[in-house]
Amino acid sequence: MYATMSEKRFQDCNKLEQLWRYRFYLAIPFMWLWYSVVGFKIGIDEEVNGEFIHTSKYEISRGKQLWRLLIGIQQMPMKWYYTSEEVFNKIKKYE
Q: Are 62 and 36 in contact (CB under 8 A)?
């Protein structure tokens, strides 16, 4: 049986577990190289009568935008997210 990660979010883990979860970042340079060559497709949706409809149109992402998208994608299995309370406190701090 494989060891599973705890259900705690990244920010609530101890430093050793955070270090272990950073392993997901190791794949980013390789993913970036792959998608820079083949292209990272992002579907384009259109709004029709107040509803969003999926179309067959795609935008290809490369470069810095692709790198940032891949970081966000890799943070999902790390369970790296912020609560709404943390986000609102951060917004209030900058007002």
A: yes
In the structure encoding, which two tokens stand for residue 91, read together?
Answer: 């917004």
Q: What is the DSSP string of 5-59?
A: PPSS-GGGS-HHHHHHHGGGGGGHHHHHHHHHHH-EEEEEEEEETTEEEEEEEEE
- The per-residue pLDDT for range 55-74, each reduced to its tens digit, is 888 888 888 999 999 999 99
Identify whether the C-beta of residue 28 lies closer than 8 Å to the C-beta of residue 74.
Answer: yes
Beta carbons of 24 and 74 less than 8 angstroms apart: yes
Task: Please work out, in degrees rounded to the nearest 5, the angle formed at the alpha carbon of residue 71 by the alpha carbons of 1 and 57.
Answer: 105
Residue 26's pLDDT band, with cuts at 50, 70 and 90, is very high
